[in-house]
Amino acid sequence: MSIGNALANRSFCVGLIVTSLIALVALVSFVWTPYPVGALDIAGKLKPPSAAHWLGTDHFGRDILSMIMVGSRNSIAVASVSVAIGAGIGVPLGLWGAATGGFVDEVLMRLNDLVFAFPALLSAVMITAVFGPGAINAIIAIGIFNVPVFARVARAAALSLWSREFVIAAGAIGKSPARITRDHILPNLASLLIVQATIQFSLGILAEAGLSYVGLGSQPPMPSWGRMLFEAQTMIGLAPHIALFPGLAIVITVLGFNLLGDGLRDVLDPKFQ
């Protein structure tokens, strides 16, 4: 990837700036927030944005900016681990199916179809019915949903590479399918998988917010953007800012990662040069 081409791509630059700012906010929240996220001030509840509370306060008098800052690290952590689970399991399965073919490939793809038929929300409902709600179970549900996505992407791209001359030549000199996959297939898929990871990351942010909204994600006292929206829905007429700012945080974060993914696709794919 040329640094010059990357900096000339508007989507990449905007996406990188937005995602870097979100990551910076999450890191800063570990050492500083304007107010403790659990500090209640009933007398100061539902206050609009002001010099004391830049984004206002919620129905318990908690500082919304502090909650959004801490909620950002929760959303990023859930999305990051779930994408790692999906890629860590899905990519090897897809590459295995493409390299083996036949019965093994067919079984792997049918299993992928079975898992893909259950959305992350439905998987979370089933998991929490057994183990209870929580961030860990949300990560597992979203990660399971990501597995067939990465498996399909890796398999489709790998199949197109197995018919290329340099792969056929590698097989002709005696390289095993596993070694060909490691030395030739996977390196040529890296850019595609990076782009897919950014897309799944943004979807992971949305999925985490959705699960928290229905009470299946992170549990109190850990702030969550989705639960902030749920708690704000009955008071949106009195204090619209308590729903506006968490919603904007979700929109900006998802938009930033989508722009970053589009930019990476344009920069890494020779067809877009």
Structure overview:
This protein has 273 residues and is mainly α. It has a single domain, classed as MetI-like fold (Orthogonal Bundle), CATH 1.10.3720.10. The protein has helices at 3-8, 10-28, 64-100, 102-116, 120-131, 135-162, 165-172, 177-213, 225-232, 241-268. Helix 3 (64-100) runs parallel beside helix 6 (135-162) and helix 8 (177-213) packs parallel to helix 9 (225-232). The longest helix is centred in the N-terminal third of the chain and has 37 residues, at 64-100. The radius of gyration is 22 Å and the shape is elongated. The chain starts with a helix and ends in a 5-residue tail after the last helix. The mean pLDDT is 90.
Describe the secondary structure blueprint for this structure.
Layout: H1 3-8, H2 10-28, H3 64-100, H4 102-116, H5 120-131, H6 135-162, H7 165-172, H8 177-213, H9 225-232, H10 241-268
Which tags fit this structure?
273 residues; mainly alpha; MetI-like fold; 10 helices
Mean pLDDT: 90
CATH architecture: Orthogonal Bundle
The CATH C-level class name: Mainly Alpha
Q: What number of domains?
A: 1
Main structural class: mainly alpha
Helix share bin: over 70%
How many DSSP E strands?
0
Q: Mind telling me the CATH superfamily name?
A: MetI-like
Beta-strand fraction estimate: under 5%
Q: Rounded to an integer, what's the Rg over CA atoms?
A: 22 Å
The DSSP helix count reads: 10
CATH fold name: MetI-like fold
Task: Write the H/E string, N to C.
Answer: HHHHHHHHHH
Low-confidence runs (pLDDT<50, min 5 residues)?
none
User: Biggest β-sheet: count, sense, barrel?
Assistant: none
Assembly state here?
single chain
What's the N-to-C terminus distance? 11 Å
Query: What best-fitting shape do the alpha-carbon axes yield?
Result: elongated
